[in-house]
Amino acid sequence: MLGLNKKDTGLFLFVLALIVFAPFILNPFPESSDLARFNAGYPDLMQRFVIFGIFAIGFNILFGLTGYLSFGHAAFLGVGSYAGVWMMKLLTVNIVPALIAAIVVAGIFSLVIGYICLRRSGIYFSILTLAFAQMSFALAYSVLTPITAGETGLQLSLADPRILEAANASGTIPAANFFGLEMRSGFDWAVGDWVFTFNFGYYLCAVFMLIAFYISIRIFRSPFGMMLRAVKSNQQRMGYTGLNSKPYMLAAFVISGMYAGLAGGLMVAVDPLAGADRMFWTASGEVVLMTILGGVGTLLGPVLGAGMIKYFENIFSRLNESDLNALFGFLPDFIQAPLVTVAQMFVGDGWLMTLGLMFMLIVIFLPGGLLEGVQRLGALVSRKKKTNEPSQPAAAPAE
């Protein structure tokens, strides 16, 4: 199927199923339940799942295949966002020109940055990428304010020319759309106590993630991917064979940057606002955590890592004392009170404690990330199944 082997086809279909049925999977609890606060099936969060999934998939092409750790990939995310908003201001709120500009501008920017940074390797490469990202943040935040709008962020306004659109007589800023279909359009489907939301913007972003995931599979299985693995394995020995690894490294860096640009373009497609905070070093660190948590060098790992971090960031960070009291209300008071006190340290503003603890446990016990945990669990289940199967009687010897 689509040039993929049986295993990769199964993986692709699994991701497709997750995307299609996400509104159901992410809303396991009825609206009337106290556990409904843990539902994640609303459009904004689902869009973030797939957008940051694209970001992490692209980062994994560089880090997972070559071992080169970039601490500056948020710069390409931010550049893609700014390019996308400018296309929506100058041309049209149809997101197609915005996405094209985001990918192209991020690709050019990553080509320049990669050409400089790849002159060094190891920690020196990482520090160089971090330095360029911080310089980009500083330029966007204070120096290039006529282009980036500084700390307020670049956004659409009624005065924008939008030369490819007819004059707007309504007096309102038009909504971002895909050939007339608004990104925020959708509908709710009530089934008993459950409410499932289907949003066009989410499914369009999901299509791009599927395309990005498919391309990453082809890269991983291609001769180009094998060359990148050779760089990670032993770059010096590769040089002894007469192969120049620099073009391969630069190509991987640019491809990874274009993935980040696409993610930035999709971010402004669903919410037309670009700010300098997207280029800050913490945003670059976030995609590193996503990839490591999910599983470096695996195909599905970065998607799982992105989903987990965004879930904790958006669900656990909004829990408060009243939510915890409602959650543990079935317990006796002498147990509920201390439990709520302890749990408060890991939710709300302290959700990063939860993330840090989870990251520490995974690095110690599952160095291959969440995907390694899934594989271990699958192996354990299959081993138990084999153990429980009745042994076949030995065949009678032939006379």
Automatic annotation (TrEMBL):
<dbReference type="GO" id="GO:0005886">
    <property type="term" value="C:plasma membrane"/>
</dbReference>
<keyword id="KW-0812">Transmembrane</keyword>
<feature type="transmembrane region" description="Helical">
    <location>
        <begin position="91"/>
        <end position="116"/>
    </location>
</feature>
<dbReference type="InterPro" id="IPR001851">
    <property type="entry name" value="ABC_transp_permease"/>
</dbReference>
<feature type="transmembrane region" description="Helical">
    <location>
        <begin position="12"/>
        <end position="29"/>
    </location>
</feature>
<keyword id="KW-0472">Membrane</keyword>
<feature type="transmembrane region" description="Helical">
    <location>
        <begin position="288"/>
        <end position="312"/>
    </location>
</feature>
<dbReference type="InterPro" id="IPR043428">
    <property type="entry name" value="LivM-like"/>
</dbReference>
<feature type="transmembrane region" description="Helical">
    <location>
        <begin position="200"/>
        <end position="220"/>
    </location>
</feature>
<feature type="transmembrane region" description="Helical">
    <location>
        <begin position="324"/>
        <end position="346"/>
    </location>
</feature>
<feature type="transmembrane region" description="Helical">
    <location>
        <begin position="123"/>
        <end position="144"/>
    </location>
</feature>
<protein>
    <recommendedName>
        <fullName>Amino acid/amide ABC transporter membrane protein 2 (HAAT family)</fullName>
    </recommendedName>
</protein>
<keyword id="KW-1133">Transmembrane helix</keyword>
<feature type="transmembrane region" description="Helical">
    <location>
        <begin position="352"/>
        <end position="374"/>
    </location>
</feature>
<feature type="transmembrane region" description="Helical">
    <location>
        <begin position="49"/>
        <end position="71"/>
    </location>
</feature>
<dbReference type="GO" id="GO:0015658">
    <property type="term" value="F:branched-chain amino acid transmembrane transporter activity"/>
</dbReference>
<keyword id="KW-1003">Cell membrane</keyword>
<feature type="transmembrane region" description="Helical">
    <location>
        <begin position="247"/>
        <end position="268"/>
    </location>
</feature>
<dbReference type="Pfam" id="PF02653">
    <property type="entry name" value="BPD_transp_2"/>
</dbReference>
